[in-house]
């Protein structure tokens, strides 16, 4: 086969263009979509991670774009519709890619086909908490109140607090009424103001109130107790009860493999920083065991399958 000089020259010219198209343009910022309000667990995790990643050599600048609403579905729709050029990424979470596929009759996106999983970012327990002067003394006391109707706040429909609360209601037999808010901040305001009996929310958002002495944690949804937290795991009194809240970095579908690998590499490197791990420890966030794209993709598929029967059997609904 004879290759013309013009064709050969064209191939050499095209190759760098293709390479550039599959690498990050560091002159442009990366928009990082958080599908929840500022101050929530995913927002806190984002600000920690982007702060440390942006300090690494040849790392992009990030612009955080909070797009709350519909249990995270609005932000995820925006991410799914973004061009797959590496300049828009976002938080995939237990809400958007675990619970919502079963909770909402229709989603404005396909949780698998419309996204590219990049890497897991963190796990964090959910907590049941009360204001510090609540008459509910501890978890055992709460479980004994079977005849009383009580309210529990969450940061919104379909979020980890909502799911954890409904599962707790189903397993405990308590008469609990879900009160959803538009974000953690509003939910905590009403808890501390005495307008709801308890809150079920991510531990990262609970810790500032606990440390300030205005709230108490009654129980953790994790498998094991956490150092420095004077509260039992809920599973010690309700065997088998476990809820993981998690965050995963993702992009729109068809994100080029070199860009996916670069983001995963940056997060992995940042997680080696002792200062970042210390910050995770302060917030009681748990680093992921694996930061590969393949692990993230399988984890999401497993979470969708796991939450489907829980949503059905607990009677979860969008309030």
Structure description:
There is one protein chain. The chain has 319 residues and is α/β, with parallel strands linked by helices. It contains 11 helices and 9 strands. The chain has helices at 5-21, 41-53, 73-80, 95-103, 139-144, 160-172, 184-192, 203-211, 257-271, 274-283, 293-314; strands spanning 30-34, 62-66, 88-93, 115-131, 149-154, 175-180, 198-202, 215-220, 244-252. Strands 1, 2, 3, 4, 5, 6, 7, 8 and 9 form a 9-stranded mixed β-sheet that branches. Helix 4 (95-103) runs parallel beside helix 11 and helix 6 packs across helix 11. The model is unreliable at 1-21 (pLDDT under 50).
Q: What are its keywords?
A:
319 residues; alpha/beta; 11 helices; globular
Oligomer: single chain
Give the SSE string.
HEHEHEHEHEHEHEHEEHHH
**How far is the first residue's CA from the last residue's CA?**
68 Å
Our estimate of the beta-strand percent is: 15-25%
Discrete helix count: 11
Q: How would you sum up the global shape?
A: globular
The largest sheet is: 9 strands, mixed
Q: Helicity level, as a percent range? A: 40-55%
The assigned structural class equals alpha/beta
Uncertain segments: 1-21
Mean pLDDT, all residues: 91
CA-based gyration radius:
22 Å
> Got a strand count?
9
């Amino acid at each position: 086969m004879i290759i013309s000089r013009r064709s050969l020259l064209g191939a050499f010219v095209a190759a760098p263009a293709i390479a550039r198209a599959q690498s990050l343009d560091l002159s442009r910022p990366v928009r990082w979509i958080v599908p929840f309000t500022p101050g929530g667990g995913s927002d806190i995790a984002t600000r920690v991670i982007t702060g440390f990643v942006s300090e690494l050599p040849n790392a992009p600048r990030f612009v955080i774009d909070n797009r709350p609403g519909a249990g995270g579905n609005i932000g995820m729709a925006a991410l799914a519709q973004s061009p797959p050029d590496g300049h828009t990424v976002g938080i995939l979470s237990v809400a958007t890619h675990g619970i919502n596929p079963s909770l909402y009759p229709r989603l404005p996106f396909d949780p698998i086909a419309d996204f590219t999983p990049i890497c897991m970012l963190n796990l964090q327990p959910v907590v049941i908490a009360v204001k510090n002067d609540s008459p509910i003394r501890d978890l055992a006391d709460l479980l004994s109140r079977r005849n009383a109707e009580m309210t529990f706040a969450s940061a919104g429909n379909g979020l980890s607090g909502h799911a954890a609360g409904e599962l707790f209601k189903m397993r405990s037999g308590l008469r609990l009424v879900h009160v959803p808010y538009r974000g953690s901040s509003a939910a905590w305001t009403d808890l501390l103001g005495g307008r709801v009996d308890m809150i079920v929310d991510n531990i990262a958002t609970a810790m500032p109130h606990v440390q300030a002495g205005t709230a108490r944690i009654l129980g953790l949804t994790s498998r094991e107790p956490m150092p420095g937290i004077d509260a039992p795991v809920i599973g010690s009194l309700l065997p088998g009860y476990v809820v993981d809240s998690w965050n995963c970095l993702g992009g729109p579908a068809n994100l080029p493999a070199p860009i996916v690998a670069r983001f995963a590499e940056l997060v992995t490197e940042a997680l080696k920083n002792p200062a970042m791990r210390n910050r995770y420890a302060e917030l009681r966030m748990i680093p992921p065991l694996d930061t590969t794209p393949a692990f993230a993709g399988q984890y999401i598929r497993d979470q969708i399958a796991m939450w489907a029967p829980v949503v059905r059997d607990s009677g979860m609904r969008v309030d």
